[in-house]
Amino acid sequence: LESSNLSEKDILVLRLDLTDRSSHEAATNSVLKHFGKIDVLVNNGGRSQRSLFVDTNLDVYSAIMELNYLGTISLTKHVLNHMIQRKKGKIVTVSSVMGIMGAPLASGYCASKHALQGFFNSLRTELTDYPEISIINICPGPVQSKIIQNVFTENLGKAIESSGDQSHKMPTDRCVRLTLVSIANDLKEAWVSDNPYLAVCYLWQYAPTWAWWLMNKMGKKRIQNFKSGVVRLFLFRL
User: Fold this and answer.
1) Burial (CB count within 10 angstroms: exposed 0-12, middle 13-18, buried 19+), residue 14
2) Active-site annotation, residues
3) Strand ranges of the sheet holding 89-94, from the earlier edge strand across to the other edge
4) Residue 91 burial by Cβ neighbours in a 10 Å radius (0-12, 13-18, 19+)
5) d(CA 6, CA 183)
6) CA dist list (Å): 14 to 34, 40, 90, 146, 201
7) What would you report as the CA-atom Rg of the chain, rounded to the nearest whole angstrom?
8) What is the mean pLDDT of the segment spanning 72-95?
9) Checking DSSP bridges between strand 40-43 and strand 133-140, what pairing results, if any?
10) Most distant CA pair in the chain: distance in Å?
11) Considering Cα of 63, then 189, then 182, then 78, what sign does the dihedral take?
12) How confident is the model over 136-145, as a mean pLDDT?
């Protein structure tokens, strides 16, 4: 719908804490009470990470999994119950290219995205009796957003000092448009990224030995930059 066609009753904004799983059922019921149905759930909550595993408190890993993984599947569970009753709906999860590959300084983030990939790919196989319920995984590469300003570091509560330049990342509106195209076409998985990140996804998928070699080379430089205070938030620069 065009924004000019929307009325006040067509919009409902609710505060939601993914880590407060006890609130997810009530939030779902509030949406159903207002609209009567849920056609699409877009799971797009989460935080990234920028720290070395050897320096990172395990509480950080627990927090990452609680937010990125458990919070997402908790909300999904309540919405899916409704979709199963209707035998129709779309569950869209914004994963990441980090759910396909591994990268230094983001081991917890990668783990949470791998967990989401495994969970939703498995859930899809449990819903074969409901062909009109789509499970769609979106895997963006670097996108212009505030995700870096809010990353986990080695300790809970410690903020990143600099978010670096974002001009080389995909513009937000392009990522959104490609995501909507993927949803409209019921793609099971979509890699929404520019090169060279997209090319690395193909390496991980089809030539993992080369991908491991490349990641070791680029990862070593990235870690050196990180330790010396040079801002390099991704493995490659265009």
Assistant:
1) exposed
2) 109
3) 40-43, 89-94, 133-140, 189-192
4) buried
5) 21
6) 11, 16, 20, 21, 35
7) 19
8) 98
9) unpaired
10) 55
11) negative
12) 94
Residue with tokens 């957003």: 145
Token pair in block for residue 102: 């591994």
Q: Are 143 and 175 in contact (CB under 8 A)?
A: yes
Q: Which residues pair with 137 in a beta bridge?
A: 93, 189
- Torsion on CA atoms 220, 222, 226, 227, rounded to nearest 10: 20
Does residue 142 sit in helix, strand or coil? coil
User: What phi and psi values does residue 133 have, to the nearest 5 degrees?
Assistant: -100, 115
pLDDT digit string, tens, across residues 31-40 = 999 999 999 9
d(CA 167, CA 156) in angstroms, rounded, equals: 28
Q: What is the pLDDT of residues 170-207, one digit of tens each?
A: 999 999 999 999 999 999 999 999 998 899 999 999 99
The full set of domains in the chain, from first to last, is: 8-195 (3.40.50.720)
- Lookup: tokens for 199: 């090319």
Burial classification of residue 183, based on how many CB atoms lie within 10 Å of its CB (0-12 exposed, 13-18 middle, 19 or more buried): middle
- Between CA 163 and CA 126 the distance in angstroms is 40
Judge whether 222 and 235 are in contact, CB under 8 Å. Answer: yes
Q: Which of 180, 139, 133, 179 is nearest to 39 (CA)?
A: 133
Q: In a 3-state reduction of DSSP, which class is residue 161?
A: coil
**Nearest to 170, CA basis, from 184, 185, 191, 149:** 191
Q: Tell me the sheet residues that pair with 43.
A: 93
